[in-house]
């Protein structure tokens, strides 16, 4: 925790998967008064228009998880990013000359999927990439009336089978 350009910020790891980020985001908001959480991470591309190192700003997250059941809703909650944070990130990308992809991602509980066509099915519904945390982050922020955003770098492609090396991911 420190200051950046006069604003107090904290940078931390959130672990892997929805249970982990669900705990961290809940505690940051409830016990530490955090108002904005931006997840910076990686994802696998499931859309053929994405290349390695492309940037995705997730405006929403679909899921195959049961995470949303905690809210006991009579339906399915659409987990979305804060528009204010999304717009700010988009404008920052423009200033840097980076063209981000903006869209829905899949937050999956499954890393090694037995259904080899799973990515294609989610891509057919408009999902750009697959990762494991955004749904829980967006749902937790919504529950508390706070803001959240996910910014992802494509580290591998389930479409082309290309992938970055461990060194490149560092």
Structural notes for this entry:
The protein is α/β, with parallel strands linked by helices and 170 residues long. The protein contains five helices and eight strands; from the N terminus they run ββαβββαβαβαβα. Strands 3-7-6-4-8 form a five-stranded mixed barrel. Strands 1-2 form a two-stranded antiparallel ribbon. Helix 1 (18-32) runs parallel beside helix 4 (134-144). It is globular.
Topology:
Elements: E1 2-4, E2 7-9, H1 18-32, E3 36-45, E4 55-63, E5 79-80, H2 83-96, E6 101-107, H3 118-123, E7 129-131, H4 134-144, E8 147-157, H5 166-169
Parallel strand pairs: 3-8, 4-6, 6-7
Antiparallel strand pairs: 1-2, 3-7, 4-5, 4-8
Helix pairs in contact: 1-4
Using only C-alpha atoms, the radius of gyration works out to 16 Å
Biggest sheet layout = 5 strands, mixed, barrel
Tell how many strands the DSSP assignment holds. Answer: 8
Strand content: 25-35%
- Fraction of helical residues: 25-40%
How far from one another are the termini?
A: 22 Å
| Shape category | globular
Q: Which residue ranges are poorly predicted, with pLDDT under 50 across at least 5 consecutive positions?
A: none
List keywords for this structure.
5 helices, 5-stranded mixed beta barrel, alpha/beta, two-stranded antiparallel sheet, 170 residues
Give the structure's gist in a few sentences.
This protein has 170 residues and is α/β, with parallel strands linked by helices. The protein has helices spanning 18-32, 83-96, 118-123, 134-144, 166-169; strands spanning 2-4, 7-9, 36-45, 55-63, 79-80, 101-107, 129-131, 147-157. Helices cover 29% and strands 28% of the residues.
